[in-house]
Design a protein that fits this description.
The complex is a heterodimer. By secondary structure, chain A is an alpha/beta fold. Chain A has a nine-stranded mixed sheet, with helices on one face. In chain A, strand 2, helix 2 and strand 3 form a beta-alpha-beta unit. In chain A, helix 2 packs parallel to helix 3. The longest helix of chain A is centred in the first third of the chain and has 14 residues. Chain B has a three-stranded antiparallel sheet, covered by helices on one side. In chain B, strands 1-5 form a two-stranded antiparallel ribbon. In chain B, helix 2 packs across helix 3. The longest helix of chain B has 18 residues. The two termini of chain B are 25 Å apart. Classes of the chains: A alpha/beta, B alpha+beta. Chains A and B meet through strand 1, helix 1, helix 2 and helix 3 of A and strand 2 and strand 4 of B. Strand 1 of chain A pairs antiparallel with strand 4 of chain B, so a sheet runs across the interface.
């Protein structure tokens, strides 16, 4: 028996094309109506429990180690805990993304008993009014915070997820204090993504230039590498590792490289998940994309600072090879502050 | 541990098998271990419905060699997994599913 770190496991998965960490959107239904949400239509109620059980069997055969179960909000499904149970019965590691408002005490006890790895709860502000104005559900802040407290009391690891936008970016210090007081981790993101249908109206919510510069200077929000983890000389590097060791499945069963890179390689209701992952012509074509094919990136003076997501670039203007304007804004702020990215999975060597 | 006991992967672990190697994550400790080739085969025979003799029998079907030594190695390996908390033993079969890769 050999102790091994997670990076070694994911590196091997990348080499041998194993979808080691897969995000599953179990529904698009949600009780909140967040102003920045990437989901364009909150109707899809997802696959049946039996279909997820079959999918988990296929994932075990494909080598999947981790699943992230998300929505919509997954707890809008009455059978959501049965889905969690089905994954854990197969000893797949589970992380749950939720807004926390629909989680019952019995769910919390079950999550703890099933050793769910961690639960990520969306909190947008320390100010109840601001948070509720973002979720557009009065009372949501109190419910989410109460859930975090109950989860922590049950010994569940909680990570607060907070996408920074103009409405909340000046509250970073207060949000960190809130997380500390709740004994939770906190993760900020700096990009408000386009909606899944390509609608970029959400970009209007992005942080101001001043806020973005401040965020980039905060090592807890954006890590800093030295030297750069990217090299423009590596012409054979790929846009993102997700196409090799990731995977995402939407509530209709479509398989994507990632929930943001929404090019479907097949559907699990028609084909085996592992077969889709390894043999899909569409996914294999995406695996052929190299930095040398991305003419703008190759010559861009922001290259060293950029964490361009190929999926977001595609969503923004329909071009997989083009610049991502959302990533460019962050890269500009990074360059001004001399903050190099740490994301090794972007522009990654094979 | 006796011959009538059923062996189950503990609920506090997660696991996967890649390229013939089984990886076990202890969710409560955040620690990952990789098993060797034989250990990985034994690991994937643990389904909550097999007793130690049944697992040993299946291992003997898969590997040539001294059956007494193999049986003893399997038991030692299971004892090690038990001491690590990676498996539990029970006099009852597991209810529900535990798939092996």
């Amino acid at each position: 028996m050999l102790s091994i770190n997670i990076r070694d496991v994911t590196s091997l998965a990348k080499k041998i094309l194993v979808p080691i960490s897969v995000l599953i959107e179990v529904c698009y239904t949600c009780n909140e109506k967040c102003i920045h949400c990437c989901v364009d239509e909150h109707k899809n109620t997802g696959l049946t429990l039996k279909q997820y059980e079959k999918l988990f069997d296929q994932m075990v055969s494909a080598g999947t180690f981790f699943v992230i179960l998300t929505g919509g909000d997954p707890f809008t499904r009455k059978d959501f805990m049965d889905i969690v149970h089905a994954a854990r019965q197969r000893r797949i590691s589970v992380t749950i993304f939720t807004n926390g408002t629909l989680v019952m005490q019995k769910d919390i006890l079950e999550i703890a008993a099933l050793y769910v790895q961690d639960v990520h709860v969306s909190i947008y502000s320390t100010n109840e009014k601001t948070h509720d104005s973002i979720t557009r559900v009065p009372g949501s802040f109190r419910k989410s915070i109460a859930t975090i407290r109950s989860m922590r009391a049950a010994g569940i690891k909680v990570r607060i997820k907070c996408p920074l936008m103009s409405l909340n970016a000046d509250e970073v210090d207060e949000l960190k204090k809130l997380a500390t007081s709740l004994e939770a981790k906190i993760q900020f993101t700096t990009i408000i993504t386009a909606k899944n249908n390509g609608d970029v109206s959400t970009h209007a919510l992005q942080m101001s230039e001043r806020q973005l510069l401040a965020a980039v200077n905060d090592s807890m929000i954006i890590g800093s590498a030295d030297p750069s983890v990217h090299s423009r000389d590596e012409l054979e590097c790929i846009p993102c590792d997700a196409i090799l060791n990731g995977g995402a499945i939407d509530p209709s069963g479509n398989v994507y490289p990632c929930n943001q890179w929404r090019v479907s390689g097949g559907n699990v209701l028609k084909e085996d998940f592992g077969k889709i992952w390894k043999e899909s012509e569409v996914l294999n074509a995406l695996r052929g994309i190299r930095l040398k094919d991305m003419k703008e990136c190759r010559v861009c003076d922001l290259f060293d600072y950029c964490t361009r997501c190929p999926g977001l670039a595609l969503l923004e203007d329909g071009d997989l090879y083009d610049c991502s304007l959302a990533a460019k804004k962050v890269a500009e702020a990074r360059k001004i502050n001399g903050v190099l990215p740490t994301q090794r999975h972007i522009f990654s060597k094979i | 541990m006796n011959e009538k006991h059923f062996v189950t992967k503990s609920i506090n672990i997660s696991c996967c098998t890649m390229d013939g190697t089984a990886y076990i994550l202890f969710e409560d400790k955040g620690k990952i271990i990789a098993l060797n080739e034989t250990g990985s085969v034994v690991w994937n025979l643990i389904d909550g419905n097999s007793t130690i003799p049944r697992i040993t029998e299946k291992v003997l079907d898969l590997f040539d060699g001294d059956s007494i030594k193999i049986k003893s190695s399997v038991v030692m390996f299971l004892e090690e997994l038990l001491s690590l908390g990676a498996i539990t033993i029970s006099s009852k079969k597991l209810k529900g599913v535990m798939r092996s890769a």
